[in-house]
Amino acid sequence: MIAPESTQSHRVPDKGLSNLRQCYTPSLREIMSSPFNHWLELTLPNALHLLGILVIALVLNRLLRAVTNLLIKSAATQARAAQLREQQTRTLAGILYGTGSKVVWAVALLTSLHEFNIDITPAVTLAGLASLAIGFGAQSLVRDLISGFYIVLEDQYVVGDTIQFADYSGRVEHLTLRRTVIRDARGALVTIANGEIRAVSNLSRDWSQAFVDVSLAPESPIEKTLLALETAAGELRGDPAWSQALVDGPRILGVQSFDRASSTIRLQVRTAPTRQDEVARELRRRIQIEFQRQGIPLSTVQRIELAGAFHSVEEAAQSGTAS
């Protein structure tokens, strides 16, 4: 009878000690800082929401890509107009996709912040104030974007066209709403802000034109010279290697100028876009060969007259004698 009482008397202090430990020992949640507890509250539903936002953003980007690709009209033929139309629609589709994709990812980022219990209202307000400040402080940027929009909308030029702006000329390598990048004759990439483009020349539309001037000696027979020029022009038109580059001509316009030193005859030729220089060089080569064959001399001697030179010599001689 004594043993059970002794056992019970020993168990009571153990239970009281356990209660004391529970009262004075802080829990793990109380020991950890509140920011860490906040991140621990990111449960499985929040992770699923973030995954859903990511999937929706990816799907919208794929749909945006598919829709913008529908705008591209592939060239059915090798005609220049069809090629230009395809290049224009491809450039427009690229700009629309780039702008739309940035908007989709921005909305996805703002939506995902809500899953971390971050209030996006101050961020949206701050973004609105920042955009207002940028509108006043970065007017050139807004001007560039508006100019780039009208360049694409009005089809002023597209990627692949050869343009000339102020002192710059070259092939368009890249086009966005803010800038135009061209490669000039040196091979350098030139970046131009669209807002700086006031007047631009597109050298890749429809056809190009070149004028070839031939200077002859005054004593050269004009009729024989015209027949030789017509022969050279006819050979160029009949050459299959060059006929595809020709739109019209070469045509002899007639005598461009005439004086005691030489007479100049002008020819006109219209070619496919940007091919006028090579066609003009080939035409000059054939003209030279034809002139050499028929023995027609070119203008090589220039007559220089010094007005009053004789009187100056006499005055110098008289002054030397007097001294």
Task: Report what the structure shows.
The protein has 323 residues and is of the alpha+beta class. Among the domains are: 44-118; 149-202, SH3 type barrels (Roll), CATH 2.30.30.60; 208-294, Alpha-Beta Plaits (2-Layer Sandwich), CATH 3.30.70. Helices cover 56% and strands 17% of the residues. The protein is built from 11 helices and 8 strands. The protein has helices at residues 2-24, 28-31, 34-40, 44-71, 80-113, 121-137, 139-153, 222-238, 240-243, 276-294, 309-322; strands at residues 162-165, 168-175, 179-184, 189-193, 201-202, 208-216, 246-258, 263-271. The strands form 2 sheets. The chain has a 5-stranded antiparallel beta sheet. Strands 6-8-7 form a 3-stranded antiparallel beta sheet, covered by helices on one side. Helix 4 (44-71) packs antiparallel against helix 5 (80-113) and helix 8 (222-238) packs across helix 10 (276-294). The longest helix has 34 residues, at 80-113. The protein is elongated and about 100 Å long. Mean pLDDT is 76; it is low at 1-13, 28-33 and 301-311.
Task: Please state the CA-atom Rg, rounded to the nearest Å.
Answer: 42 Å
- Tell me the β content: 15-25%
Low-confidence stretches: 1-13, 28-33, 301-311
CATH class of the domain at 208-294: Alpha Beta
Q: What shape does the CA trace take?
A: elongated
* Number of E-type strands: 8
Characterize the main sheet.
Answer: 5 strands, antiparallel
**SSE pattern, N- to C-terminal:** HHHHHHHEEEEEEHHEEHH
N- to C-terminal distance = 165 Å
Which features does this protein show?
alpha+beta, Alpha-Beta Plaits, 323 residues, 8 strands, SH3 type barrels, 56% helix
